[in-house]
Give the backbone structure.
Amino acid sequence: MANAVSQPTLIVKNKGLLTVALMLGTIMQVLDTTIANVALPHMASALGAAQNEITWVLTSYIVAAAIATPLTGWMSDRLGQRRLFLFAVIGFTVASALCGIATSLPEMVLFRILQGLCGAMIAPLAQTVMLNINPRERIGQAMAIYGMGIMVAPIVGPTLGGWLTESFDWRWVFLVNVPVGALCVAMLMLYMPNTEIKRRRFDFFGFGMLALAVGALQLLLDRGAENSWFQSTETWLELGLVISGLWVFIVHSLTAEQPFVDLRMFKDFNFVLASVFMLVMGITLFSGLALLPPLLQNLMGYSVIFTGTLMAPRGLATMVSMMIVGRFSGKVDARLMMLFGAILMSYSLWMMTSFNLEMDYWPIIITGALQGFGMGFLFVPLSTMAFATLAPRMRTDATAMFSLVRNMGQGIGISLVSAVLASMMQVNHAELAARLTPTSQAVQTQMPGLLSGDPQIVSMINGLVQQQSAILSYLDDFWLMMLLSVASIPLILLLRGPKKLKNAPAKTEEELALERAHAMAD
């Protein structure tokens, strides 16, 4: 006799088509975290932005999403899941269209912020609805579909972005969302039912202080190099806002009756270590994705579509490694899998420090695949270890903070490597140019035209110096990322596994599948 299937929390008339609608919205939102990367050089040219400024297109989206993600639960209760999901998808689609017609960098950054604010709510809502429309016995299967679905977007993002930019125009990396968003809205209106609206208090003050600190930190990182860092009054003002906003947020959260975030979660040693590790992973992973397209297109002369193709093996390797991790989950110590992933990640970054302008494309493919394979062994076990010893009542707030830390790592990483790249280009250019003196043997034997002051020769030599200083600056960034990755490895050894209770029942395959799917979704 077949086992009885329990009733889902939410009854819908067509679960299959609603699942398709949920995944359309999720993939569309996740796609935008990577699809714009390969088009950055073209955007910079069209919008008249410098290399260190165009990364605002990425960081503004990431920070807006980081700030808005914790709002999802409260807004879902106040508006209902159907209304909020429709609002988020419509807002994201409209913002995408506005990005596609932007004529200046400030316009683009403003519209990307709107994209981030709306898009931040799509993935958490989609996951919640999929949990609600499936019976308890099939939740693991539903979350596995969701987790695998959101992995498709980062894999095809750079390739799709490259093809759209090469075949049409960089604006289509945003405009492609319009028909997808319209289809998603139509299906949601047809198949997603209304849910109960709940009235509950929201800690606006606590949220405001956290948003102030996060926003000021990102402004400091984005504009620091342009303002000569702490030689500028603006930088000191932004630092003051970061410190004061964070300080007031902490004090308020420790003293308020119903704070925005319960800070007692940070008493858990595992959660703190895992959060620090996730911050480092956010810095190293996404900063690398932002660095490679300009390197491949501007210095190595690859086309946009070929650049996207070269970056695809990274995502494919991550998907393969996550499948392997799923097989070993619960059978092999999570710390051992994380250690393997961290070492592989560090080794791939070390290989990237040997890049040069004479190499072919195979080092790009090999290092990307190794890095992606290592990341798969990091994310799933890390998500498990982060909550292994945390009290169940704190998991809701902890999930939001863990997501915030990851998003801030992405924003900090992109800003950090961009600032280092711009600074080291000036330093390396000055050092290389200083060696081209009239007494230099290389100048006398190989570049005698430089001594006569021939404008064409001077221009050609200056171009070569700029090219060499640029590749050296990229290598400086790769060294920085590698050192950060290596420095985080000892944190893995300090993590503690969950205490096993005597006579505790073993976890079922369904429970293990659910844990893996949640980690993959995160």
Remarks:
- The chain has a mean pLDDT of 78.
- The first helix runs from residue 15 to 31.
- Residues 55 and 63 are 12 Å apart (CA to CA).
